[in-house]
Amino acid sequence: MKNPICILQMQRMGDLVLTFPLILWLHRLYPGREIWVVGEESFFSAIYHVSPQAVFFPWSAAPRLKTRRFEAVVNLSHRDEAAILAGSLDTETVIGPYLDKNAVRRIRGDFQLYRASLTGCNRHNRFHWAELNALDLVPLSLIAATRPDPPRRLPPEKRTVGLFVGASEAAKRPAPAFFGQLAVECLKRGLRPVLLGGPGEKDLAAEAMRTARERARGPVRILNLAGKLSLKEFIAVGQTMALLVTPDTGPMHLAAWTGLSCLNLSLGNVHPWETGPYQPGHHVLRSSVSCSGCWSCERESHLCHAAASPRRVALLADHLTAAPSARTARLRTPGARLLRTGKSPLGLYALSPATRETGRAVFARDLSGEFWQAYFGARLGLWDEAPALAAATRLREDAPHLAEVLGRAMPRFARNLGQGLRGTMPDDFWRAQIPFLRPLASWLHMALANDDFSAKARRKALSDAEACLSFLLHR
């Protein structure tokens, strides 16, 4: 009997759903080999029937895993107990965080190390979580060749729109009053809104209903199913809907996986390039303010929330339920960006504008993200240097103001890195750099620490930094 592959995914439901593509790819790479998944039973027990074939175990069953040998153990959790378990299992290969024989926490796998380096500085990351879960084991060619079915399209007369009112944090969702106003705006456009949410969101939905009645000055034809559906029932009800308007939540990922078209309101400290709906053909509405997609909000108020007004979102829902068209592309969304999920020319997840847009800041930010994806892809073995060279050239030519800032910042970065390589690197090394250079600084710092600042790690860090500067300065 072939040794199984074990995945440790003990985060939230959305993280579990974003593990499903990895399970699918592993089955294609290792036909006939069992895939075991250790997760939170409250999540997998309700959605395993829509997962690719896998054997699910609750965390309480972890001791039983120590009786088996595994082909590989993939730890996708940041919890300490997951790292301890990963380091204790009998396996050929460990990917992700684990405790070594000296009880020191390490990270194995180039892409898992890269993901860890994004903590606090993911502004320019362009690798989706679903793909970062896989890239240490799954070849890019297989990911690029995978073409999920687009979201299903219902007949034009099917105009039911789900409004998911909750999220894991208040900053990641609109206020309840927003959903009440949105429901009324949907009714005006002939849509049939349904409020959705878990048991913990019943009060939010009730407040939204009160707002809707006040707005309409009387009874409203809005169905409130918040707290009334199991996850299985949520999936079934989703089959009857034309669209789900939703913050970045676990149910959003479940809906996208099961074919329900999503309009993701990307608000607060979430980054749609990392956790937007993964399958092609969904839409993301996000603010165009410069701090959008932050790791944690440092403002007095959430400026990004202004991008999603009830009237604008209802207009978009009306267009998207009628099938996106040239008419949709002509829409203007001042202060916001409507993006469509898809595949990049390199074969990875991509977000592309679904409407006409202009703006130097938006353009420069896109060019920056494009460069960093091309650079890290080259250094981590996904492709050769050509994409990074091309992206750096576009950055210099199309964002000369950013190139000037980089030219002034490079000497300081090189000086700080040199001091760190010769002695002790300060904990705030990456934070001391300009935002554009922080992905490189954080990754180098993480890689050095992961290898105890060994001579080999120092040589590699110097080589990686020199390659980056060479691309950017075209030397």
Automatic annotation (TrEMBL):
<protein>
    <submittedName>
        <fullName>Glycosyl transferase family 9</fullName>
    </submittedName>
</protein>
<dbReference type="GO" id="GO:0008713">
    <property type="term" value="F:ADP-heptose-lipopolysaccharide heptosyltransferase activity"/>
</dbReference>
<keyword id="KW-0328">Glycosyltransferase</keyword>
<dbReference type="InterPro" id="IPR051199">
    <property type="entry name" value="LPS_LOS_Heptosyltrfase"/>
</dbReference>
<dbReference type="GO" id="GO:0005829">
    <property type="term" value="C:cytosol"/>
</dbReference>
<keyword id="KW-0808">Transferase</keyword>
<dbReference type="GO" id="GO:0009244">
    <property type="term" value="P:lipopolysaccharide core region biosynthetic process"/>
</dbReference>
<dbReference type="Pfam" id="PF01075">
    <property type="entry name" value="Glyco_transf_9"/>
</dbReference>
<dbReference type="InterPro" id="IPR002201">
    <property type="entry name" value="Glyco_trans_9"/>
</dbReference>
